[in-house]
Amino acid sequence: MGLRTIQAIRELPAELRPEQVFGCEVWRDLDWMLDEDKVGLDVSDHQNLATSLVSVFDSQVAGGKGYDMATIGRRRAHATYYATHDVDVATSMIFAMDLTGLVSDPSLDIKEFVRRYINRFAADVSRRIDKLL
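Given the sequence above, the corresponding structure tokens read:
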């Protein structure tokens, strides 16, 4: 769905494109990105509404799967693990990827755009392993 949205926005005249576009990954999350590359969205307010909204989809909560509770738990974990050496600024967070560059410059290759983030993460992991060896 995200790719189709990016393509649709790219087809808009430049003056009608949104100023900012963020993408969130639900299933895998954005653990494959460096923390400084993620945009932390504070979704602490209205926890009752958040819980109700993620519980609306029976296919996600019926039959023994607790995606509703897992989603709320993940958001709370993000708030704690984000900026690990700082005091928490939120009780619930969603991580997003800034996709603005992809919609403001339609000549950018989507795969290469994502690959840059993956390569930055891979390089960071390699540096950390090298430090330990």
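Residues 2 and 40 are 19 Å apart (CA to CA). Try to locate this feature in the token string yourself.
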